[in-house]
Amino acid sequence: MEILSNKKIYSTLIFSIIFLPYSVFASNVYIDTKHSDFFVGDTIMFNVRVDSENNNINTVEGSILMDYKTDSISLIDVNTSGSKFSLWPGKLLPTENNTSISFAGGSPGGLNSKDAIIFNIVLKLQEAGQIILKPTNIGVYLNDGKGTKDKVSVKNLVIDVLPKKSDSQSINDWSNLVSDDKTPPKPFEIYLGQEELSFEGKKFLSFSTTDEQSGIAYYEVTEGGLAPVRSDDTYILQEQNNPVKVTVIAYDSAGNARESTYSTTSSPVPSNYVIYFVIIIFGLLIFTSVIYKKRKVFSKHK
After folding, report:
1. Which residues neighbour 193 within 8 Å (Cβ) at sequence distance 6 or greater?
2. Which of 65, 123, 157, 193 could form a disulfide with 31 if both were Cys (CB 3.0 to 4.6 A apart)?
3. Where in the chain is the domain with CATH 2.60.40.680?
């Protein structure tokens, strides 16, 4: 009888595991790299990834803490090369002492992936020792139309940097990536928006594109006869009343460029699209505010 009882319990457990809903599994944010050995002088690209555990997600935010001995690394670049997230509230934000990088990325259509790249960190290894990269304050949101926050697990990456090899050339992931990138960013549209809750009710332009190789470095905006200025993916118009032509150039980290133009005399986009886009922008503004507050709190505790 005991044997039958154990079998029954075992069968019940198997049945429960098979039919558990996906929501009980937490999204996992982790960091990896294609290298297994690390030496002084190497420049390595680390990928910050998310495994959504079969859930459909649309937003990931948080910070990556970098624990290392002073002067043992140099932060070369933070980029979105190969990222599955196309909406960013401004640039990724390293702290002044390069010990933490805050981020918030969105995927409007949502995604379901085991290894989606969120963004990349490029480090030059300057001294032997241990480096720990730690995801912290991570938030993952489901693509369910309600902004539901998913459960999250994280995994640190610990690497040991060894003394430089005298008989081999140092690895440079970043130089290789940039030199191989001959493709400009993807074509993009520019949209005119105005919302009393955003930018003090001023008219603004929104634009966003991606680059699958070296990532978007910055945008350059030329409004009418004004001098070009660098911008993130939102630009407040200087000329609020009269028609003006605006040119936006997206540059990737390899210097490849993609240009798009917009005239404020153009026909407006459909109203439902404007509303949708304003909602996205307002959401990103909220994320920007959250990140800024986190950065201030983090600085106070340093």
Report:
1. 203, 204, 205, 206, 274, 277, 278, 281
2. 157
3. 24-180
Q: Is 173 left (phi over 0), alpha (psi -120 to 50) or beta?
A: alpha
In this structure, what token pair is assigned to residue 94? Answer: 């390293």
Report whether 227 contacts 247 (CB < 8 A). Answer: no
Rounded Cα–Cα distance for residues 234 and 154 (Å) = 31
Is residue 76 within 8 A of residue 174, CB to CB? The reply is yes
Which amino acid is it at 73?
Answer: I
Output the pTM of the full model.
0.73
> For the segment 53-104, what is each residue's pLDDT rounded down to a tens digit?
999 999 999 999 999 998 999 999 999 888 999 888 767 888 888 999 999 9
Residue 186: C-alpha distances to residues 86, 222, 229, 249, 256 (Å): 11, 19, 21, 11, 11
CATH 3.30.390.50 fits 24-180, yes or no: no
CA-to-CA separations, 283 to 18, 185, 280, 297, 302, in angstroms, rounded: 36, 24, 5, 21, 29
φ/ψ of residue 70, rounded to 5: -50, 130
The correct answer on CATH 2.30.130 for the domain covering 190-268 is no
Cα separations in angstroms, 241 against 64, 198, 203:
43, 17, 9
CB 230 within 8 A of CB 220: yes
* Residue 93 DSSP SS3: strand
End-to-end CA distance of the chain: 62
